[in-house]
Design goal:
The two termini are about 40 Å apart. The longest helix is centred in the middle third of the chain and has 38 residues. The radius of gyration is 23 Å and the shape is globular. It is mainly α and about 475 residues long. Helix 2 runs antiparallel to helix 3. It has one domain: Ribonucleotide Reductase, subunit A (Orthogonal Bundle), CATH 1.10.620.20. The chain has a three-stranded antiparallel sheet with strand order 2-1-7. It has a two-stranded antiparallel sheet with strand order 3-4. It has a two-stranded antiparallel ribbon with strand order 5-6. The chain is built from twelve helices and seven strands. The protein binds benzoyl coenzyme A and fe (iii) ion (2 copies).
Length: about 475
């Protein structure tokens, strides 16, 4: 088991103190990170004590420590899953050779690009969510928001560690740039489109953590297979934190759905909005938006980039080692949907070119599980309504469907018809204005906003009524 150094200014299990140069570079980046956190991170709660878990080691049963902490004092650390001696490259043209402990020169640019793209999403999500605390539905939810935020901050640290350790001067420059691009910025936006979309209310937040953090899960699963061993080890550790983010999303949406059902039953014409809830149709529209925006994050369905990453052993399939026998896949094909005239047809694509589709299809399957749970709650309430994942071609801006107009049911439409019906399928300005009127801060212990049910249990065995956030009593800063 690797030992953890908590006394370093940067907690880590990578023996940072033995590499003075790297340590100095990271210590130079640290104040810039904190400056970014104070200006672009959560607005308004930086002096409060938050009941948070902090990663303190990388072993499977002891890594999470729960305590009150002020966010700027959070111990953002560098943790990699333990090294497996003799690990080999698991797939691609160099399968079975020893995994790389250093960056192979011929793949340097590709690898750096993957790390920068991954790293860029982490601070982006914190920026997207920075105002949500001001309208939290409960202290429990407020704490969960901040838990997600500090961990995305830690994921940024993980990628910056890789850039500083393995990519020299241009790695350090990329690490700086990660703090300078900003979500939604007109001149220097974040790299991937989903991370420039506003998360202006809590329904957006729950959908984002359900659907978009789940893209993170699948991207990390494929990077966890990487032949570049430090990348694989950082990804494996990040995955342990990711589960909670998706839990926040899944249970968050569930609680909004449950409340919608309760209010529908109280209302004479099953109108959740008339009693201050979020109606199921609006929930479906938000789902449509974040699901399809997250599908774009898998890249094109047919991709030579993906084929190259696989050939090079940089990015595999999710569960490459556990789930597959053929790790070379030179003679296999994969069936990919594509639009053709007024139909959607199957086409066989050489498997290496279809890797983004393969990863995306496992994502779709994973997404469905939560939707099933939400539908079960609706059925249990005795309401006749079903939430659905729309067709993978709907509302796409990347890939094979990006120039087509596909309805949520998978019909190929004329662009005009799509434009005419768009408001039935995606959140309108009016929908979001309505949801915004419900977003009122509830910060009393044990209380919750009207539009959402309380959770069935709290965090770490604590009740819902627990004081998850202790307000700072002094002068505000
Ligand atoms: N937006 O070959 P293609 C997370 C570009 S989320 C803008 O089809 P490829 C998190 C692409 O760069 C996980 N541009 O795709 C979640 C390429 O440009 P060039 C984040 C896009 O390269 C919540 C061109 O289009 N991690 O961690 O196979 C909270 C053709 O690309 C987009 C990763 O994504 C897009 N959506 O795949 C916090 C892993 N898609 O070469 C955190 C690292 C494609 O023509 N990234 N393009 O200039 C990757 O693996 C790949 O870069 C992608 C794209 C999967 C994103
Ligand atoms: Fe993350
Ligand atoms: Fe996450």
């Amino acid at each position: 088991m690797s030992t953890v150094d908590h006394y370093d200014s940067i907690p880590n299990n990578v023996n940072l103190h033995t590499d003075r140069k790297l340590q100095r570079a990271l210590e130079k980046w640290q104040p810039n990170f904190l400056k970014w956190w104070m200006t672009m991170g959560p607005e308004g709660f930086q002096l409060d004590d938050i009941y948070l878990r902090t990663a303190i080691s990388a072993d499977s049963d002891g890594w999470a420590n729960f305590d009150y902490v002020r966010m700027p004092d959070y111990r953002w650390g560098i943790f990699l899953a333990d090294r497996v001696e003799g690990r080999t490259i698991g797939f691609g043209d160099e399968a079975d050779e020893l995994a790389w402990q250093q960056v192979p020169g011929e793949y340097r640019n590709e690898l750096k690009r993957l790390i920068v793209t991954q790293g860029d999403t982490e601070p982006a999500s914190v920026e997207q969510q920075r105002l949500l605390g001001l309208t939290c539905p409960s202290l429990y939810d407020l704490r969960n928001l901040f838990q997600v935020n500090v961990e995305e901050g830690r994921h940024l640290w993980a990628m910056v560690f890789l850039l500083h350790s393995y990519f020299g001067r241009d790695g350090r420059e990329e690490a700086e740039a990660l703090l300078h691009r900003n979500s939604g910025d007109a001149d220097q936006p974040r790299i991937l489109s989903a991370f420039n979309e506003p998360i202006s209310d809590w329904l957006h937040f729950y959908m984002f953590t359900y659907f978009t953090d789940r893209d993170g899960k699948f991207q990390l699963l494929s990077l966890a297979e990487s032949g570049f061993d430090p990348m694989a080890r950082t990804a494996r550790f990040m995955l342990t934190e990711e589960a909670h983010h998706m839990f926040v999303g899944e249970t968050g949406v569930l609680r909004v759905v449950q409340r919608a059902c309760e209010l529908m039953k109280e209302s004479p014409n099953e109108d959740a909005r008339s009693l201050g809830g979020i109606d199921l149709i609006t929930i479906q529209k938000y789902l449509n938006f974040w699901y399809t925006t997250s599908l774009d994050l898998f890249g094109g369905e047919v991709s030579t980039n993906a084929a190259n990453y696989f050939a090079a052993g940089l990015k595999g399939r999710a569960y490459e080692q556990k789930k597959y026998e053929d790790h070379v896949i030179l003679d296999s094909y994969y069936s990919v949907l594509k639009p053709e005239d007024d139909k959607i047809v199957d086409s066989d694509v050489p498997m290496r070119n279809a890797l983004n589709s393969i990863l995306r299809d496992s994502y779709v399957e994973d997404c469905q599980r939560g939707v099933d749970k939400w539908n079960k709650a609706i059925a249990t309430a005795g309401i006749n309504f079903e939430l659905k994942l729309p067709h993978v071609g709907f509302n796409r801006t990347i890939g094979i469907f990006s120039n087509s107009s596909i309805s949520p049911d998978g019909e190929v439409l004329e662009a005009e018809e799509f434009a005419r019906r768009r408001n039935d399928w995606l959140p309108t300005a009016a929908d979001q204005e309505y949801v915004a009127t419900l977003m009122i801060s509830v910060m009393e212990r044990g209380k919750i906003a009207n539009w959402i049910c309380p959770p069935t249990k709290g965090i770490k065995g604590k009740p819902f009524e627990f004081e998850y956030v202790r307000r700072y009593a002094g002068e505000s800063a």
